[in-house]
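ESCALATION

Customer reports they have been waiting on this structure for their group meeting. Please prioritize. Original submission:
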Amino acid sequence: MEIMWSKKVLAKNLQHYMNEKGITQKELAEIVQVSPPSVNEWLKAKKYPRIDKIEMMAKYFGILKSDLIEEKRMKEQPEEMA
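Update from on-call: job pushed to the front of the queue and completed.
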């Protein structure tokens, strides 16, 4: 169950950083040297990338690996408790 949750978290975070950078699934696939269907499966939370691919993505986006794999509050989300 935790693995599925992690896939969903990665999918959401990856989509956020792709949107921020303005890149397509095909472009990301070329950057991390995988097939476009692999990126699509990550974004649909069907599969989880290998750690070396997570490292490559983090380096490309200029973020920490944890920014991709951990659930963090995004700037646009309001605080639930004041």
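Sent to customer with the following note: DSSP finds five helices and no strands in the chain.
Escalation resolved.
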